[in-house]
Write a structure and sequence with these properties.
heterodimer, A: 421 residues, alpha/beta, 6-stranded antiparallel beta sheet, 6-stranded parallel β-barrel, 2 helices, 15% helix, 44% strand, elongated, B: 113 residues, alpha+beta, rod-shaped
Chain lengths: 421, 113
């Protein structure tokens, strides 16, 4: 028997419609919630990028203390900026927040090279010629002494390179090297000489990466000759010593600073760090220092020092970044940078004194020096380059230098994105 | 079969049941239509998302104050020196649709090209 049940059918239809409507409401709610999340995220991203631009355009001293402010005097545009002088580069920490939502970025930034001042070779004019022998290549502009550049016959080998000798423009150099930036040198000295509390807990862990959003952690070995080994250190960490510090190949360093009178990096080391010494830095064979690294001798004292300031790069080592020596007072023994056999430097070498480039060394970038040195078993040649390549065109077009060096532009660009959320 | 007598009874709904059913179904449809309209009206339009994407791409190349038309949107571009650093530019972009309704807005600090 058929039953007419109009009410039942209507209730079922109403239920179906209710289910469809409620699913529509729920999906619209989630869509809207997700959109609002994305809208807030986009807004934070914009504020963050504005903060980064402000930091890049600011002067060296601006935002040295963390500063929080409203970008456009609105209610959802607060940013917090902090700039840290990190060795020869700068590190910036930017935070953008709207109520409980926060986005942060930490970046390191540096200066593009000034093409007007850039040169593959800058050799100070000491009234003697500059001689090339063997398979030597100089590609890029060169500032050379008035006496000029010439071919030479050394170790029974004639010059075999390009007939032009210098593949680029030749300019006459001055009697002095273009000076390093005093502000950056002062910042380095202040950083080195500050009184710090030793963070003894840091070396107990086998791997520490410390954020630039937090206060810097210092490890100070004081007068104890220590060896850094079987440890991974990265980020906002400074290692200091008042005597020799040895870094073993089992230590992995990333972006940290090291200050010590003498630093020895053992054979086979891999990493990127900025090393600053007062007396010497010895990097042994087969090491790899990734860009941006730095090895620098800074002697800011006015007293005369008898020992030679020296940076030694071992054979087959690759170094990406900047090698420099600085002495405030002229000592009798000039500082020396010695680059070992078949070693490669991608970046810049600034030697206030002597630069020794051994056989088959390669510098992709720029070399500023007062004097070149080449020695074989019996003889010592000054201002000779033998079997060496200095190629400024081989350097990446994205290479950034430090404001310390005289070829830096004033404006800043991002060197690395260090941290982000 | 034509002409044959009905043997059984057919249970039909009463007129009251039918009227109530009709009222219920009309009310339910009415509510459903209201919900659909509200959800559609209040949910974000593709137009708004498109306008926001356009503003994002236009922001980094903004140099001077002007009004531009891009994909059915009128974009008002206001560029002034930044408060924090005069070497930077404060770019304020507002997108309007064809009915001159504000669709999206963006403010950003950029470096001068």
């Amino acid at each position: 028997m058929l039953k007419a049940s109009a009410l039942y059918i209507v209730i079922i239809i109403a239920l179906v419609i209710a289910v469809i409507c409620s699913s529509l409401i729920v999906s619209a709610y989630f869509y809207r919630a997700q959109y609002q999340k994305k809208f807030r995220y986009d807004r934070l991203e914009n504020n963050l990028s504005s903060g980064v631009n402000i930091l890049l355009a600011g002067s060296d001293t601006s935002y040295a203390a963390e500063k929080t402010f409203s970008l456009f005097n609105g209610d959802a545009d607060s940013v917090s900026l902090h700039r840290i002088s990190w060795g020869i580069y700068d590190v910036g920490a930017v935070r953008a927040f709207i109520q409980k939502d926060t986005l942060y970025r930490t970046i390191s930034f540096a200066n593009p090279v000034d093409s007007a001042k850039w040169a593959a070779v800058y050799l100070v004019d000491e009234d003697r010629p500059f001689s090339l022998s063997g398979m030597t290549t100089i590609r890029g502009n060169a500032y050379i002494p008035k006496a000029g550049v010439q071919q030479a016959y050394v170790d029974n080998k004639a010059y075999q390179g390009d007939k032009r000798l210098v593949i680029g423009h030749k300019y006459v150099s001055q009697k002095q090297l273009p000076a390093l930036d005093n502000t950056r040198l002062r910042q380095l000295e202040q950083f080195r000489d500050q009184k710090v509390t030793n963070d003894s807990t840091l070396l107990k862990a086998d791997s520490v990466t410390w954020s630039f959003l937090k206060p810097t952690r210092f490890v100070n070995f004081k007068k104890k000759a220590e060896v850094l080994q079987n440890i991974k250190l990265g980020g906002n960490i400074v290692v200091m010593s008042d005597t020799t510090l040895t870094i073993e190949s089992t230590a992995v360093l990333k972006d940290i600073l090291v200050f010590a009178p003498t630093i020895v990096v053992k054979e086979g080391f891999h990493g990127s760090a900025q090393l600053f010494a007062a007396d010497s830095i010895r990097i042994e064979n087969n090491c790899t220092f990734g860009y941006p690294s730095c090895a620098g001798i800074v002697r800011s004292g006015t007293q005369v020092v008898k020992s030679q300031a020296r940076i030694t790069i071992g054979a087959n080592t690759t170094f990406g970044g900047i090698l420099f020596t600085y002495e405030k007072t002229d000592n009798a023994v000039k500082p020396l940078i010695s680059v070992g056999k078949s070693a490669a430097v991608s970046g810049q070498v600034y030697s206030q004194g002597i630069l020794e480039l051994k056989d088959s060394t390669r510098v992709s970038g720029s070399v500023f020096t007062s004097r070149f040195l080449y020695r074989n078993t019996f003889t010592l040649y000054e201002n000779y380059l033998i079997n060496t390549t200095i190629d400024s065109k081989a350097l990446s077009p994205y290479y950034l230098t430090s404001s310390l060096l005289p070829v830096a532009q004033k404006k800043k660009k991002i060197l690395q994105w260090l941290e982000a959320n | 079969m034509a002409g044959s007598k009905l043997n059984g009874r057919v249970n039909g709904s009463t007129i009251l049941e039918v009227v109530i059913s009709m009222i219920v179904i009309v009310v339910v449809f009415g509510i459903a239509m209201m919900i659909v309209t509200n959800v559609t009206r209040l949910s974000l339009s593709g137009k708004k998302l498109r306008a926001e994407a356009l503003l994002q791409s236009a922001a980094d190349s903004a140099v001077i104050s002007k009004t531009i038309t891009l994909e059915d949107f009128r974009i008002e571009q206001e560029v002034k020196p930044c408060q924090q650093n005069s070497a930077l530019l404060d770019v304020h972009l507002t997108a309007y649709d064809q009915n001159q309704q504000k669709v999206a807005e963006l403010e950003k600090i950029i470096s001068q090209p």
